[in-house]
Design brief:
Radius of gyration: 20 Å
Largest sheet: 7 strands, mixed
Number of strands: 18
Oligomer: single chain
Order of helices and strands: EHEEHHEEEEHEEEEEHEHEEEHHEEHHHH
């Protein structure tokens, strides 16, 4: 297998492409968007993802753009009392990446690092190519795009997110499930946010059917806010649904003054419905497979969705490079990754039930999945380095 076509230029697809190029395999990525644009979202870099970046030789570049996290404190929604961890007193500046710690990063910054590395290695990205269908034969697979273009390769990898066109064809009647949660996302420049950051650089406040997560990114210049609310109102996912300041304030009435103050500084507020996928017994069909949200979209309560896509991309690349046939490569890929992602998928749901407890005054700490060190610190590269 000397060539792979990847559908989607997200974090998992880019990671897979870099790992394939390092193993001497030609890669083309086909992205539906006309151009890869910055989006106003921060993300948590789980330890598994950072193990991958170390193995790929780019961790120092990633961490230079990231903000080292402290003890990821969980705080009481009204009093600010520490429920788990300790206050994060970091300055938000990047580091050399050697410490084995959680980090936060602006998604666009990470994407730029990955795109630059892929370009350096000779991988190619083609924008404006929205997949309509794929077909395959005994010797290759062909991806067909809106507009009539097509590409043929020995394998096709669907890295095209929760609304995956690859998955839609592979699994008939399967659709993302609304989870009953929405996320309000917003950014605040630090010069306006500073007076509301007394609880540390990062903090997760836990309240009745609510979670308010905020942390700095972009070298401490911007505060990323993600307010999660349990609701019966089904909301689309994506960046198109706007929310008013009054709506967000109302959802967090009675919360800590720093939460209310930071919300008051929010500019553009996006309301994003949270969806997951029914876990599958297999992610592959012939010469086509999936990774990341296309294979196993999950809730964000452990902050490990991005890490799962990055881990998938790395492991899949090793399997493709190490096996002569797609069937053998995909079988071992699934054997390694399906149990791991199923565990995290379930744990993310459980963590949400705990962190959005009806009674945060009796927050159940001992059994929280976030305390499962074996799961949270898993190294997907250990068998390949």
């Amino acid at each position: 297998m000397n060539h792979a076509a990847i559908i989607g230029a997200g974090l998992g697809g880019l990671t897979c492409a870099i790992a394939l190029r390092q193993r001497g395999i030609a890669v083309d990525i086909y992205e539906a968007a006309d151009r890869i644009e910055e989006t106003g979202a921060g993300l948590t870099l789980g330890l598994g993802a950072q193990h991958v970046f170390r193995a790929l030789g780019i961790q120092s570049k990633v961490s230079a753009k990231a903000c080292p996290a402290g003890n990821l404190p969980f705080l009481h929604y009204a009093s600010g009392e520490i429920l788990l961890g300790g206050l994060d007193q970091g300055d938000g500046l990047g580091d050399d990446g050697e410490a084995n710690i959680i980090r936060h990063i602006y998604r666009a910054d990470l994407q730029k690092v990955l795109l630059a590395e892929l370009e350096r290695l000779g991988g190619r990205t083609h924008n404006g190519n929205r997949l309509t269908r794929f077909d395959q034969s005994a010797s290759d697979a062909t991806a067909h795009f809106r507009g009539g273009e097509s590409v043929t390769a020995p394998v096709i990898i669907g890295a095209d997110g929760v609304r995956s066109a690859v998955r839609a064809q592979m699994v008939a009647g399967d659709a993302p499930r609304f989870t009953g949660h929405v996320a309000y996302r917003f950014l605040v420049p630090m010069d306006r946010a500073a007076r509301f950051m007394g609880l540390g650089r990062s903090a997760i406040l836990i309240g009745p059917q609510r979670t308010f997560n905020r942390y700095t990114m972009a070298q401490g210049r911007i505060v990323n806010g993600a307010a999660l609310v349990e609701t019966g109102e089904e909301v689309p996912e994506g960046w198109s649904t706007k929310a008013s300041l009054d709506e967000l304030r109302g959802a967090f009435a009675g919360w800590h003054d720093d939460v209310i103050g930071l919300i008051g500084e929010a500019g553009n507020i996006i309301k994003w419905g949270l969806y997951d996928r029914v876990p599958l017994a297999s992610w592959s069909e012939g010469r086509v497979t999936m990774l990341g949200d296309a294979a196993h979209a999950m809730l964000p309560f452990l902050g490990m969705g991005a890490a799962m896509a990055v881990e998938d991309g790395y492991v899949l690349a090793q399997m493709i490079a190490g096996h002569e046939t797609p069937s053998a490569a995909f079988a071992e890929y699934e054997a390694r990754r399906i149990p791991r992602t199923a565990e995290v998928h379930h744990a993310s749901k459980v963590q949400g039930e705990i962190t959005q407890s009806i009674d945060p005054d009796n927050f159940a700490l001992a059994g929280a999945p976030v305390n499962n060190r074996e799961m949270m610190e898993f190294d997907p590269t250990s068998e390949f380095t």
